[in-house]
Every structure is written in structure tokens, then in C-alpha cells.
Design brief:
heterodimer; A: about 60 residues; mainly beta; Ubiquitin-like (UB roll); 5-stranded mixed β-sheet; about 30% strand; B: about 200 residues; alpha/beta; Rossmann fold; 6 helices; 7 strands; about 35% helix; about 15% strand
Chain lengths: ~60, ~200
Amino acid sequence: MIEVNGKKVDWVENETVSQLLKRVRYIFPLVVVKINDKVILKKDFSTYSIPDNSKIAVIHMISGG
Amino acid sequence: MVKKFMNKQKFERIKKTLKNSSVGIAGVGGLGSNAAVALARAGIGRLVLVDFDRVEESNLDRQYYFLDQVGTTKVEAIRNNIKRVNPEIKITVHNNKLKKGSMEKPFIDVDVVIEALDKAEMKAEFIEEILLKLPDTPIVAASGVAGYGHCDRINTQRIGKLYICYDEHAPSSDDDILLAPRIALMANWEANLAVEIILGEDSND
């Protein structure tokens, strides 16, 4: 089991960040992803496998400034 | 009589630390111009400001510029406005667009970087480049500044050296209005985070 923005989600073995975002339907294209207090860079989304019991925060960037 | 109760040592220590510190700001629009002036008033010793744009009349509903500055470059206009508050502050300006691949360049020697860009794509790219290339430099960003009201939805998300002033339910500025009260609130939130990073958490001693 993993936690995504406070919600419990099933853990899938060898699932990458890209696959998880798709599975939980985070459709925002521009996100900062934190896994267990570490920032995962976008270039690593398709290769980084999420460990079981991870706490994941997905923060999306919204235009305006 | 207020002075009598103020911790003078704390006051002197804070002023000195801020004066010896530097903050870099990417973009001096609604977020950046307001954050820069707040930091100048707080007594930050050096600011590095980057923007390619010129002041337009339509900016005046939220950005720290004046009618007689319409047409001048934002970096020059904000430099002049800051100098009117504090002529001693050292200001380095870059009147150009941040280029993908070298976005960290103007900020290699500052203590804290503030992301104050407008487009979500740019924000994400900038944050990632700073995290990757200046891993020891704290970066403060903002996401969700559009609209009005909803003060209480704003919070700070911290991930290592990245601090995001965040309202996840805010609309995009592509779909909603940007107005001074809320954007200045977020700009000052960013500036306040920068001050807290520089000074450490306020402990009331």
C-alpha cells in the first residue's frame, strides 16, 4: 500500500512515477512529485520505480504570477 | 515606549543577517515585483532580478509599478522603486528571458531563489533546473495565485530545499483574473518564506 496526497492506493510492483500518475488520473501535465521527502525529477518519472509503503505528494503548477 | 519592550539584541541580529544576505527573483511581474519590494523594505542586502518584459498599463492592477513607468523595462522600473525605499541595497538586474538549460546562471551566488514566473510550464522547468543545478540553494515557488479570496486555502508545501506557496484549488490565470490583493499576498508569502529560510524559524527569544 502506498499513499498519494493522503489517500491510500494499492502498491504495484515495478510501477514507475509516470504509470502511477496515469493510474490515479493526475492529468495535470506540470507536477512536482515528492516520494518520501525526496523530489523526483521529471526526467526520472518513466524509470523511477515506487517502493512499497511510499508516501507520495503530487503538487501541480498552476499558471499565474 | 514600545522600544523598551523590544529585544534589541534580536533586532540587531536580524537586521545584520538580512543585510548580509541575498535573494534572486526570477520574474518581476505580480509576484516578483511585490516580493522584491517587501524584501527591500525588510533590509535584504542584495537582490538579483531577472525579467525581459516592459511595464504595461494593464499590469498596474497588481504589479509594483506606476503609471509614469509604462513602457520602461520592468527590471529598471523595479530598481528605481526599490532605490526610493532603500538606496543602499545592491541590485543586479538581467533584462532578458531565462533560457532553458541555463536558467540557474543569474542565481549561482544568491542565498535563496524565488520563482515568480507566470506560465505553469516555466515554473515547473525553472524549479527543476534550480533543484538539479543548485542543489544547495533553497528555492521558494508559488502555484495557484489567480482569483480572489480564499486566503485560508493557501499553505506552504516543503520538499527538502523546495518551498511552494500553494493553493491547489486555485484556477489557472488562463481562465481567471489576477488581482493585487491575492497576488501580493502570495508574493509576500514567498518573501516571508525567504526571510524565514535566511534567519531560521522565529523562536521569540
